[in-house]
């Protein structure tokens, strides 16, 4: 059993790699536009995708907690392969909408279950909490590395043919299903009893009545994810306005992914050496530099400043994600991660179409400035209270991080 549980950890890394090995991502906006879509319609599609995830996110996490991580990952991996297979035949808005809905099923099932499987496997092996931090960092590194390598190949393939790029993507996507079949369901360790049935009311009570750090982290994660994802959908039009080639799109996306991967590795070290408060200040300020830098500087200077935002993404994906999961009982860890992702998707439904409209009607600079103001409000309303709460926690006694 121990060998299978240790194999689980490597499988999670491998599954995450092939899930994020997306050739289409660095050129997805030009690809959608080649099908006749406007930038606003691209954001509408993403809002539909987010709506699908919102509907399925919490049930999928609950399913993973009740039926098992392996079951949820098998469904998600099958949908992942089916979605990219369908993309070969999607030629208009309706066809692309079906693609986005299938991918919404895939992401909702995979989201939270992989991280929960990783934690549960390590807990069953009696792994120390410090190793969880390393595992979260390495998981983020693998995802970013896969996204970067996919971007390099995707940009080159897009120069040759969008159809060839999609065909190869649809073949590699099925690797996730093969890896999901190799997973061994880990034993779940319930903190209070051995009952696997989890009450939604119990989860809600735990979140609402938990300490202030838990509640603020639960809100901060989707807020800072929103800042990154909005800019990620605007960088390709940003590059296109500069007249860059699709191959350069791939190279730049690879560089961004490498930045995220590097920050994922550095996040643990930053928190340990500089402390939780300093790390949170950095996470709060970097988006302001990156987003306003892109809006005000423009050109290659704006591109370079945008990398600051993606560095921040790597930091919070380790520091905040680990802080959240360390505070959640294993019996409903997947559900809470899915609920957190649900908040992020719901936020995109509300704000995504508006950002797409601003970019289409008033230019990228206006849209970026709006995102910068949103990040400033997030820093004042979310990050500063979190910093104060962590500081109080630090004064109460020694801690090893945002624990």
Describe the structure.
The radius of gyration is 20 Å and the shape is globular. With 403 residues, it is mainly alpha-helical. The chain has helices spanning 2-20, 28-34, 39-67, 69-87, 93-110, 113-124, 129-160, 162-172, 175-181, 200-208, 212-241, 246-274, 276-296, 299-326, 333-362, 364-396. Helix 4 runs antiparallel to helix 6 (113-124) and helix 7 runs antiparallel to helix 14.
How many E-type strands? 0
Radius of gyration: 20 Å
Query: Count the helices. How many?
Result: 16
Give the N-to-C terminal Cα separation.
30 Å
**Which geometry do the CA atoms define?**
globular
Task: Estimate the mean pLDDT confidence.
Answer: 85
Largest sheet: none
Secondary-structure element pattern, one letter each: HHHHHHHHHHHHHHHH
% residues in beta strands: under 5%
Structural class: mainly alpha
Which bin fits the share of residues in helices? over 70%
Give unreliable regions as ranges: 190-196
Search tags:
mainly alpha, 16 helices, 403 residues, globular
Topology, element by element:
Elements: H1 2-20, H2 28-34, H3 39-67, H4 69-87, H5 93-110, H6 113-124, H7 129-160, H8 162-172, H9 175-181, H10 200-208, H11 212-241, H12 246-274, H13 276-296, H14 299-326, H15 333-362, H16 364-396
Helix pairs in contact: 1-6, 1-7, 1-9, 3-4, 3-5, 3-15, 4-5, 4-6, 4-8, 4-9, 6-7, 6-15, 7-8, 7-12, 7-14, 11-14, 11-15, 11-16, 12-13, 12-14, 13-14, 13-16, 15-16
Put the structure in a nutshell.
The protein is built from 16 helices and no strands. With 403 residues, the chain is mainly α. Helix 3 packs antiparallel against helix 4.
């Amino acid at each position: 059993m121990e060998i299978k549980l240790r194999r689980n950890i490597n499988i999670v890394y491998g599954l995450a790699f092939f899930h994020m090995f997306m050739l289409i991502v660095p050129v997805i906006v030009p690809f959608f536009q080649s099908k006749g879509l406007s930038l606003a319609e691209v954001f509408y599609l993403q809002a539909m995708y987010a709506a699908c995830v919102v509907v399925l996110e919490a049930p999928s996490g609950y399913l993973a907690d009740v039926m098992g991580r392996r079951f949820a990952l098998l469904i998600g991996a099958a949908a992942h392969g089916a979605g990219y297979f369908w993309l070969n035949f999607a030629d208009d808005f309706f066809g692309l909408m079906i693609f986005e809905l299938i991918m919404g099923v895939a992401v909702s099932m995979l989201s939270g279950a992989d991280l929960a499987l990783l934690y549960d496997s390590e807990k069953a092996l009696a792994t120390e909490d410090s190793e969880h931090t390393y595992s979260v960092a390495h998981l983020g590194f693998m995802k970013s590395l896969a996204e970067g390598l996919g971007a390099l190949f995707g940009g080159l393939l897009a120069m040759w043919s969008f159809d060839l790029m999609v065909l190869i993507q649809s073949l590699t996507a099925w690797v996730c299903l093969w890896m999901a079949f190799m997973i061994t369901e880990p034993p779940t360790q319930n903190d209070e009893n051995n009952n696997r049935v989890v009450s939604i009311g119990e989860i809600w009570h735990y979140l609402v009545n938990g300490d202030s750090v838990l509640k603020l982290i639960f809100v901060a994660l989707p807020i800072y994810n929103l800042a990154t994802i909005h800019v990620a959908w605007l960088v390709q039009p940003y590059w296109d306005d500069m007249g860059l080639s699709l191959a350069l799109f791939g190279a730049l996306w690879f560089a961004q992914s490498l930045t995220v991967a590097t920050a994922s590795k550095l996040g643990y070290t930053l928190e340990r050496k500089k402390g939780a408060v300093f790390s949170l200040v950095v996470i709060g300020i970097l988006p302001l530099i990156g987003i306003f830098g892109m809006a005000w500087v423009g050109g290659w200077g704006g591109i370079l400043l945008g990398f600051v935002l993606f560095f921040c993404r790597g930091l919070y994906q380790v520091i905040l994600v680990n802080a959240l999961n360390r505070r959640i009982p294993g019996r409903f860890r997947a559900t809470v991660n899915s609920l957190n992702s649900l908040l992020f998707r719901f936020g995109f439904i509300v704000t995504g179409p508006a950002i797409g409209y601003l970019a289409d009607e008033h230019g990228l600079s206006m849209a970026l400035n709006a995102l910068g103001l949103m990040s400033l409000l997030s820093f004042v309303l979310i990050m500063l209270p979190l910093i104060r709460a962590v500081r109080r926690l630090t004064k109460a006694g020694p801690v090893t991080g945002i624990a």
